[in-house]
Amino acid sequence: MNHSAKYELVVGLEVHAQLQTQTKLFCSDLTAFGAEPNTQVSPVSLALPGTLPVINKKAIELAVKLGLALNCTIQHENYFARKHYFYPDLPKGYQISQHTAPICEGGYLEITVEDEKMQIALNRIHLEEDAGKSIHDADERNTCIDLNRAGIPLLEMVTEPAIHSPEAAHAFLTELRRMLRWLDVCDGNMEEGSMRCDANISIRLQGDQKLGTRVEIKNLNSIRNVKKAIELEMQRQIECIEKNEPIIQQTRSFDADKQISFPLRNKEEADDYRYFSEPDLPAFVLSETFIEKIRSGLPLLPQMLIEKYKQDFGLSEYDANAICQDKEEVAFYESLVTYLPKYKTMANWMLGPIKQYTNDHQISILEFPLSPLRIAEIVSLTESGKIHFNTASTRLLSGMIKRPGLSALDVATELNLIQEQDGNALENWVSETLNAMPDKVKAYHAGKKALIGLFAGEVKKRSKGKADMEKVQQLLIEKLQQNG
To answer: How does DSSP assign 403-418, residue by residue?
Structure first.
């Protein structure tokens, strides 16, 4: 029996995003992904005695940038705190984070679920440093420690318990990742760990205001896995309640291969991290001038651009949203319509042949071999009727990719793709075809209408592929009706 309708799901997400700075949060160690273990460390990230942290200004700018885009209140007076806990990949024995004074408070992110727009409320966004990495499978008998990640600047984004479906959680993370990439705050690569998510999940009876017992699920390394883990945990909690079994407050891990979660540890009460103000870092104050300078430099955000494309360009919600998934694709589209302001046609090319090519070759739009100018030249040929879209999007596009230095007209002429539109020439080819096939013409009039495809194929052969086949179809029908 499905009891899902009886209960309301309540989810809060904690998302960690690695900031796109070149150096760590409190020292000049590099942050590039993929370096050999323990090669991007220094006395500061190793926590050697006598070392002192120095704040990375770029990290603060990126935090404010995201906070403004997510409608947060930016705190002018900020300080860091020490969060104490023991873990082998945390060299200092404490993590420098923000506790009572997050740099961004409140705010929201607007998402769309099944055509319904909603705002997911944020509790806070705060800065903190990352810990290192424990590697359990590199040595049979020992755990290895890589401290390259220790000190990497992170933003932790915490939502209110305001998400009520797995689909809304999926939409939130998808939109958040787009925003992070859009603003160059984080690359959003969950596979490399630069964006990580934990989900706090509980259920309650529909209409109840009191929150249920919360279970936290960690190790969610893709947006799809977040959605699946929430679905499974919701069902597990419902089954517990229906069997009169208690839901234990605990932390669980999600196994994506087996599609199951399993308990890591019980959490009877909140951890005592013994927070206190970081004595080695002075408080930092953000002036209104500093904040406004960042605000004035914000690009047009995705939702604003989507509305512009719908209102000014006449694009559908789907087309506008698809183009605005990536700011590099937006830049390519904007160049296309600058050369040729056929907004819907250019959207069709972006989401059709161009997207298919980049997907097939697993490249970004930045690596697409043809410039917007060359695509605009192709579209001009299709708009003028000189080449059919199907021919342009296959043979001509392929030919131009092989010879990107030539214009579309040059390549089309070289490949003999320009359609013959002269009425007299087309009429001659049609007449010659019908005169050469009197028996087939009789069969057509007797009811075998599918023979028009045979006639069209013969015309195409006689024209050596140059005939405008749409006009040929019209002429064939007219001639056959006259002879009928």
So the answer is: -TTS-HHHHHHHTT-P
What confidence score (pLDDT) does residue 392 get? 94
H or E element, residue 227 = helix 223-242
Nearest by Cα to 419 from 378, 470, 454: 470
Q: Among candidates 411, 348, 422, which has minimal Cα distance to 379?
A: 348
The pLDDT value given to residue 425: 65
Measured CA to CA, the distance from residue 261 to residue 240 in angstroms comes to 15
For residue 24, the one-letter residue type is K
Structure tokens at 138: 């590199």
pLDDT score at 268: 56
Neighbouring residues of 8: CB distance < 8 A, sequence distance ≥ 6: 164, 203, 204, 205, 206, 207, 208
Model-level pTM? 0.85
Nearest CA to 128 among 309, 286, 278, 352?
278
For tokens 């064939």, name the residue: 476
Structure tokens at 28: 């000049």
Q: Which residue type is seen at 461? A: K
Q: Helix 452-462 crosses helix 423-436 at what angle (to 10 degrees)?
A: 120
pLDDT in tens, 273-324: 999 999 999 999 999 999 999 999 999 999 999 999 999 999 999 999 999 9
d(CA 390, CA 385): 12
Contacts by 392-400 with C-beta closer than 8 Å and gap 24+?
A: 392/417, 393/349, 393/352, 393/353, 397/353, 397/357, 397/370, 400/370, 400/374
Burial class (CB in 10 A: 0-12, 13-18, 19+), 81: buried
CA distances from residue 78 to 98, 102, 127, 228 in whole angstroms, order as listed: 8, 7, 10, 37
265 contacts: CB under 8 Å, gap ≥ 6:
250, 251
> Residue 379 belongs to what H/E stretch?
helix 372-383
CATH 1.10.10.410 placement within the chain: 423-483
What is the predicted pLDDT for the residue at 100? 82
CB 91, CB 46: distance < 8 Å = yes
Residues of the chain with pLDDT under 70: 1-3, 267-271, 420-427, 446, 459, 464-470, 472, 483-484
Query: What pLDDT shows up at residue 442?
Result: 74
| CA–CA dist 140, 132 (Å, integer) | 20
CA distance linking residue 206 with residue 210, whole number of Å: 11
CATH architecture of structural domain 423-483: Orthogonal Bundle (1.10)
Residues forming a β-bridge with 97: 81, 128
pLDDT at position 303: 93
